[in-house]
């Protein structure tokens, strides 16, 4: 029986940067897959390449070697507006800091991907209301970001990433500034996205309690994937 194609895949990804006149590796031949319905947590110390990996998987940066694929499409094969369209429809991205529009309401922030994607007004409003209800913020739809708590703002960022029903959700330290109770709520929302929307979720975290809610955990150290995690990835096992 044919194996389902990974929703997101890194193949020998390498990214180098200049620092102090020298070329240093942010990532060195990192390979990773995530299937639809699976949550993969990426852990490692600061500077290990976690965010670099996420930006390459999202097509927001280009590798020096190797490739990243989303829903089977190699990011190297799409450029400009075609790349933007692919990201818009296939990938929900949650950056550090959330990047909410300060003068837009919670509902308007969530609507942005649908508006950019040309979704009609009625469907846009219905889908926004549905996702706000799922993240428990229906009663905050008209509030501005500065009227919301940090946890509420993070839930708005998650709702924005999920509203397009993407195949892949990429989250960069989604609980980094939250207390432990709120962090668990936010993580369970992401885990729920994998189940309910059959999305692949790749989340970067420093928090072991967040990682333990994932189906699989991989570890990066100095731009290298832990060999044990790589073998586990190939075999389809879990940590």
Automatic annotation (TrEMBL):
GO MF, one term, reads: ATP binding
Q: Which Pfam families match?
A: ABC_tran
Source organism's superkingdom?
A: Bacteria
SUPFAM superfamilies in the cross-refs:
P-loop containing nucleoside triphosphate hydrolases (SSF52540)
Query: In the UniProt record, does the keyword Nucleotide-binding occur?
Result: yes
User: Which terms are listed as keywords in the entry?
Assistant: ATP-binding, Nucleotide-binding, Transport
What residues does the ABC transporter domain cover? 8-239
Q: What is this protein called?
A: ABC transporter ATP-binding protein
Q: What is the lineage of its organism?
A: Bacteria, Bacillati, Actinomycetota, Actinomycetes, Micromonosporales
């Amino acid at each position: 029986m044919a194996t389902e194609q990974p929703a997101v895949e890194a193949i020998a990804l390498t990214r180098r940067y200049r620092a102090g006149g020298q070329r240093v590796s942010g990532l060195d031949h990192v390979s990773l897959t995530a299937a639809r319905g699976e949550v993969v947590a990426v852990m490692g110390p600061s500077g290990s390449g976690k965010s670099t990996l996420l930006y390459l998987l999202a097509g927001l940066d280009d590798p020096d070697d190797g490739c990243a694929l989303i829903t089977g499409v190699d990011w190297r094969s799409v450029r400009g507006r075609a790349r933007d369209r692919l990201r818009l429809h296939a990938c929900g991205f949650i950056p550090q800091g959330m990047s909410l529009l300060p003068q837009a309401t919670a509902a308007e922030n969530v609507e942005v991907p649908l508006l950019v994607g040309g979704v009609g007004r009625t469907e846009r409003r219905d889908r926004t209301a549905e996702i706000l209800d799922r993240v428990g913020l229906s009663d905050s739809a008209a509030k501005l970001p500065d009227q919301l708590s940090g946890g509420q703002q993070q839930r708005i960022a998650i709702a924005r990433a999920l509203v397009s029903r993407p195949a892949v959700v990429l989250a960069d330290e989604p609980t980094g500034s939250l207390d432990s109770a709120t962090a668990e709520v936010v993580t369970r929302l992401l885990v729920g996205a994998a189940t309910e929307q059959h999305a692949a979720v790749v989340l970067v975290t420093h928090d072991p309690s967040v990682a333990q809610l994932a189906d699989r955990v991989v570890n990066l150290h100095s731009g290298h994937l832990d060999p044990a995690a790589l073998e586990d990835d190939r075999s389809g096992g879990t940590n």
